Automatic annotation (TrEMBL), chain A:
InterPro entries: ABC-2_transporter-like. Coiled coil: none annotated. The chain crosses the membrane at residues 42-60, 80-98, 132-152, 158-184, 196-216, 247-269. This is ABC transporter permease. Keywords: Membrane, Transmembrane, Transmembrane helix. It comes from Tumebacillus flagellatus.
UniProtKB/TrEMBL annotation, chain B:
Keywords: Membrane, Transmembrane, Transmembrane helix. It comes from the Bacteria. The keyword Transmembrane helix applies. InterPro entries: ABC-2_transporter-like. Pfam families: ABC2_membrane_6. The lineage of its organism: Bacteria, Bacillati, Bacillota, Bacilli, Bacillales. The keyword Transmembrane applies. The chain crosses the membrane at residues 34-54, 75-97, 117-138, 150-175, 181-199, 206-225, 231-251. It comes from Tumebacillus flagellatus. This is ABC transporter permease.
């Protein structure tokens, strides 16, 4: 039997990449289904978002009235409030990886995770994305309720598509940064403090509290050279001020940071997994 | 010495001993203690950054200067710091009631509410207290009178924060599991107490001085520290005392409805 004939007699071949994608997509789907079971809880818990947004709405209304101009740093009052809705939604929807992995290490559960026939990092990524995309609509719904009450139904047009596209890169970069922090639990016991500090940087230099245009000067330049803008500023800005020309630039910056951080994460993981000493389980 | 004076002295000794032991317990893990306190200070400085950026672009928020807003942060965080360091269970009562852990306190020969309140110290809140002092150092009035007014503002703020939340947490006696509700009320109360009152108007402002009286804390930097207003200061003192009396009363009524959870607990 010639070789080509033998090949055709084998089982239909599915590329290994397609299998891998299917495997991690299944992990993501299961996470989505698990999280959908707690949708009501998430809604109740996110009501606090209304308090925050109400306070910001009051603060910026007074500010716009006081300044007497229609725009501040290129944002109208309406755009600024919607920017904050998207920014808060991005941060609140990001699963807290450090807490989860720290607990897994402390309880010894990580031993089971590492022996599964899946990549530990890709498994965590699929779970992370599944959870994030259940939470984003919830937070946008709650935050959007206030925005809609104040300004009516928003007409972002392409902004919605742009947000969806950029949010994938945003959650990916956030996952990579968080995972790097979370993996430090392989060396040290407490990582929550690091995560806490990380999110404070995202709040400020990431553009959650203020769009980066408001910074100006050196602070803005520093923020432009750091990955945190990819997490909050890019998707929120795209949603409220969609600019097709900017999308390519934002995706490019996200891709560069994703590549750099993936290399760092892989190196840290390889080093950490050799060092890991699991107790209990 | 009269019996009342002896009782007061004994109560004071009990409080001091409890606080000393709480602090010793927290200091047992030095690294964890330092991280908790340090990260909390850093967390609070995020708002200094926010307001710093804000005031470089806009000189005033409806007449409030950077110094006024920083004192709002100092008093708000300081009031929370005092409450959570010295009366750490002020946001833990709902959990204690609904899980039946109150039995332990009922069996001890000390005032129940006071005993519950002081039995916990939130370590990270020491960071809030330090942050409050740093802000006073940077933006406060450094005279004897300035310091006295600052301490009075802290005392009033802490009393309002503790007793308002004791009231909210005591709902657990009447509706069962009020942990989630109590936490939401606390979060809303603390958050609004950290912003200038004059950004709120109409219904929002009315709520701040009635149903959610955080306005009596966030207006202290103006009504007490900057422009001493007799009506506001006496109003705030009255609210603090009124909330304290109401909290003790409601807690006492709640105790009569409390059913033991048959849970074995121990206080170390």
């Amino acid at each position: 039997m010639d070789v080509s004939r033998e090949k055709t007699l084998r089982e239909p071949r599915v590329s290994s990449l397609a299998l891998q994608v299917a495997k991690y997509t299944a992990v993501g789907k299961i996470t989505v289904r698990n999280n959908l079971a707690y949708l009501y809880d998430y809604l109740i818990r996110s009501l606090f978002l209304l308090v925050i947004l109400y306070i910001f709405a009051q603060l910026w209304r007074v500010t716009y009235d006081g300044i007497g101009t229609a725009t501040i740093s290129g944002y109208t009052f309406e755009q600024l409030l919607w920017y904050l809705v998207f920014a808060e939604a991005m941060v609140l929807s990001s699963p807290r990886l450090a807490r989860r992995i720290e607990d897994e290490v402390k309880k010894g559960d990580v031993a089971y995770q590492l022996t599964r026939p899946v990549s530990y990092l890709l498994f965590q990524y699929a779970q992370y994305m599944g959870e994030a995309y259940v939470l984003v609509p919830v937070h946008l719904l709650v935050g959007g309720a206030l925005g809609t009450m104040m300004f009516g139904v928003p007409h972002f047009g392409w902004g919605w598509i742009g947000f969806l596209l950029i949010s994938v890169g945003a959650f990916t970069v956030n996952f990579l940064l968080n995972m790097i922090l979370a993996l430090t639990s392989f060396w040290i016991e407490e990582t929550r403090g690091l995560e806490f500090v990380y999110y404070k940087i995202v709040f400020t230099l990431g553009g959650m509290l203020l769009p980066l245009e408001m910074f100006g000067g050196t602070v803005r330049q520093i923020a432009d050279w750091l990955p945190f803008q990819c997490v909050v500023y890019f998707p929120s800005k795209t949603a409220v001020q969609f600019d097709a020309g900017e999308i390519g630039h934002m995706l490019g910056v996200q891709a560069v940071w994703a590549a750099v951080l993936t290399v760092c994460l892989t190196l840290i993981y390889r080093k950490g997994v050799k060092k890991l000493n699991v107790n209990g389980g | 010495m009269s019996t009342a004076a002896k009782k007061s002295l004994s109560l004071l000794q009990f409080l001091l001993t409890t606080w000393k032991l709480n602090l010793a317990g927290a200091m047992e893990f030095r690294m964890s203690f330092s991280i908790s306190v340090g990260t909390m200070i850093l967390n609070n400085f995020v708002w200094v950054f926010f307001w710093g950026i804000y005031f470089t672009k806009f000189p005033l928020v409806n007449g409030w200067t950077l110094q006024d807003v920083m004192m709002v942060q100092a008093i708000g965080n300081g009031a929370f710091g005092v409450a959570a360091v010295f009366f750490g269970n002020f946001i833990g009562i709902a959990n204690i009631v609904s899980t039946g852990q109150l039995d332990t306190y009922l069996a001890q020969p000390k005032p129940v509410l006071l005993n519950v309140l002081v039995s916990k110290m939130t370590v990270s809140a020491i960071g809030d207290l330090l942050f409050c002092l740093i802000l006073y150092g940077l933006y406060g009035v450094h005279t004897g009178l300035g310091l006295a007014k600052f301490l009075l503002a802290l005392l009033i703020g802490a009393a309002i924060m503790v007793f308002f939340n004791v009231l909210a947490q005591s709902l657990a006696f009447f509706i069962g599991n009020a942990e989630g509700l109590g936490f939401q009320v606390f979060n809303a109360f603390l958050t609004v107490s950290l912003y200038p009152t004059n950004i709120f108007h109409g219904l929002g402002k009315l709520i701040l001085f009635t149903a959610l009286p955080a306005g009596y804390i966030s207006f202290l930097p103006i009504g007490l520290l900057r422009d001493w207003s007799n009506s506001f200061v006496w109003g705030a003192v009255g609210v603090a005392l009124g909330l304290a009396l109401l909290a003790f009363r409601v807690f006492r009524i709640g105790l009569k409805r409390y059913g033991s959870g048959n849970m074995m607990t121990m206080r170390m």
